[in-house]
Design brief:
Belongs to the copine family. The protein has about 600 residues and is an alpha+beta fold. The protein has three domains: about 130 residues, C2 domain (Immunoglobulin-like, Sandwich); about 140 residues, C2 domain (Immunoglobulin-like, Sandwich), CATH 2.60.40.150; about 220 residues, Rossmann fold (3-Layer(aba) Sandwich). It contains eleven helices and 28 strands. Helix 8 packs parallel to helix 9. The longest helix has 15 residues. The two termini are about 50 Å apart.
Length: about 600
């Protein structure tokens, strides 16, 4: 029987939260979890809002709603005062449990927050608004302002913008919030995208409110002014900048000669289409998965139980757990399932010379493993033959995969490469690795680095572009962020008891994996599990395929367990030669 599925966006706001900070207000975020197999697994998070007891989160949460299933959700609110991903060291402000069906049927659900023991938190309410996602258009804007009012006594204003849409009940719902531009009355904000549905529900004439505010660290932000517009008028900026007066109604009422509190300038505007993962897999996009495993001496003697490479009685260790967690998910999206698997940092037979890039199966003419299980088998075999050594070099394997990506970029059809690096410690060739990543950022390629063990991985954060685009030693910046680093032990409890076969439906869901194209621009978000890790990249232009599916074939998703098989069959019948399999490329030593 076909399942009734609907994509849902959830908007979350809170009112009257507990204040856990001394001298300021709480810095809340909301985390959404789903109950599965008797335990709770994280799906997604909102952004953190500084110094607010009444946060209105602009980042929406996403779910696939199955009418015939009971999908139990938990929304946890935390006061976050550090940079760690784990919420265990943050102040808990309250939570709310419900089913997705309750939210969808209510459309707008407002409930008091509870403690973990089920008792009232004492203060705080949560409001959740559900909306079906029907429109896949996105609006791309580049916005600036001129001559804004000065709100700070000893400096200029620190302005940010908020975009609101008018709801059916007349209330205003936040759709997007820009970053803060410090000490500037003529700011230019970073270009951004916002879904058409979030901003106007697909109605080009629906009124949009743009609010300009001066940011204050203590949360007591100062209103500068606002503008009213709709998408039809915003479209004027497709050909020339659109200027909107930023008006403070209170000032206008009190001051006879008041004109405005500045001008908001829409420098550019474009309506684009956000294609789904299914659209592009059906169109022939091929994903290729490569693995690199760290065999340096810092891992410890594999014969010792203290070693990260020590195989427990079940034949596993932390490296293999991480490999299964990511690999068993990605393999379902690699059609040929032939994965190049490499090791680095070891002395390898027969001469036991150092190698920073060797096939796990020691077959230099054919380094491919058929599926994740064969990678595991090759790992078991090579572990008995090599000797751990060092140092830890990442650049050889990154450059190796980049060669394949460069070759694929010249071929018709779209092919994307994902490199998974499993490592235990500090990179020795940091400068060379930075250069390799910057060069690879211009190719259809992304990198997941998983840190195993309990080492200090602060150095790895340099490669992750969360704090800004990575730069090569020469100062050249990456064209996009292609690296995601995650310490595996932070999330190891999420994997306890999970088997590889359950990762497929997790990966399939929108909340855990998003491969989005817009005008053949590519983002890839790789789910570690249940949304814990996303490999978030910025746009990269790929050549379009000559065939693309814009609607789902009837019955394609009648069974979540076999949809990929149907998908591959359909894609093959449409365009069997859309992209060359990975193993057809010549091998680079």
């Amino acid at each position: 029987m076909a399942q009734c599925v609907m994509k849902v966006e959830l908007s979350v706001s809170c009112q009257g939260l507990l204040n856990k900070d001394v001298g300021s207000k709480s810095d809340p975020l909301c985390v959404m979890l789903e109950e599965s197999g008797g335990s709770w697994h994280e799906l997604e998070r909102t952004e953190r809002i500084m110094n607010s007891l009444d946060p209105d989160f602009s980042q929406r949460l996403h779910m696939d709603y199955y009418f015939e299933q009971v999908q139990k959700l938990r929304f946890g609110i935390y006061d976050v005062d550090n940079k760690t991903y784990s919420l265990d060291d943050d102040d808990f402000l309250g939570q709310f449990d419900c089913t997705l069906g309750q939210i969808v049927s209510s459309k707008k659900l407002k409930k008091p927050l509870l403690l973990k023991n089920g008792k009232p938190a004492g203060k705080g309410q949560i409001t959740i608004v559900a909306e079906e996602k029907k429109d896949n258009r996105i609006l791309k804007l580049n916005v600036a302002a001129r001559n804004l009012d000065k709100k700070d006594l000893f400096g200029k204003s620190d302005p940010f913008l908020e975009f609101y849409r008018c709801s059916s009940d007349g209330s205003w719902q936040l759709a997007h919030r820009t970053e803060v531009v410090k000490n500037n009355l003529n700011p230019t904000w970073r270009p951004f995208s916002v879904p058409m549905q979030a901003l106007c529900q697909g109605d080009l004439e629906k009124e949009i409110k743009i609010v300009c505010t001066d940011y204050d660290n203590d949360g007591s932000h100062d209103f500068i002014g606002e503008s009213r517009v709709n998408v039809l008028r915003l479209q004027q900026a497709e050909t020339s900048p659109l200027e909107l007066e930023c008006v403070n109604a209170e000032k206008k009422r009190k001051k006879k000669h008041y004109k405005n509190s500045g001008v908001i300038i829409v420098k550019s505007f474009k309506i684009d289409v956000e294609y789904s993962f299914l659209d592009y897999i059906m169109g022939g996009t091929q994903m290729n998965f490569t693995v690199g495993i760290d065999f340096t001496i810092s891992n410890g003697d594999p014969r010792s139980p203290d070693s990260l490479h020590y195989l427990n009685p079940g034949g596993s260790n932390e490296y293999l757990s991480a490999l299964w967690s990511v690999g068993s998910v990605i393999q379902d999206y690699d059609t040929d399932k032939l994965f190049p698997a490499f090791g680095f940092g070891a002395l390898i037979p027969p001469k036991f010379e150092i190698s920073h890039e060797f096939p796990l199966n020691f077959n230099f003419s054919n380094p491919y493993c058929n599926g994740v299980q064969e990678i595991v088998n090759a790992y078991h075999s090579c572990l008995q033959q090599l000797r751990l050594y060092g140092p830890t070099y990442f650049s050889p394997i990154i450059n190796h995969v980049a060669q394949f990506a460069a070759a694929a970029a010249k071929l018709p059809g779209a092919t994307y490469f994902v490199l998974l690096i499993l490592t235990d410690g500090v990179i020795t060739d940091m400068d060379e690795t930075r250069l390799a990543i910057v060069n690879a950022s211009r190719l259809p390629m992304s990198i997941i680095i998983v840190g195993v063990g309990g080492a200090d991985f602060d150095g790895m954060e340099i490669l992750d572009g969360d704090g800004g685009l990575l730069k090569a030693p020469s100062g050249v910046a990456a064209s996009r962020d292609i690296v995601q680093f995650v310490p595996f032990r932070n999330f190891i409890n999420e994997f306890n008891g999970l088997q590889p076969d359950i990762f497929f439906p997790v990966f399939h869901s929108y909340k855990d994996v998003k491969v989005l194209f817009s005008s053949y621009q590519f983002w890839v978000h790789v789910g570690f599990t249940r949304g814990l890790v996303r490999l978030a990249t910025r746009p990269l232009t790929l050549k379009p395929t000559s065939h693309r599916i814009t609607s789902r074939p009837a019955g394609l998703l009648t069974n979540r367990g076999c949809w990929l098989k149907q998908l591959n069959q359909a894609a093959g019948s449409l365009h069997p030669s859309i992209a060359l399999p990975y193993h057809w490329f010549s091998y680079f030593n």
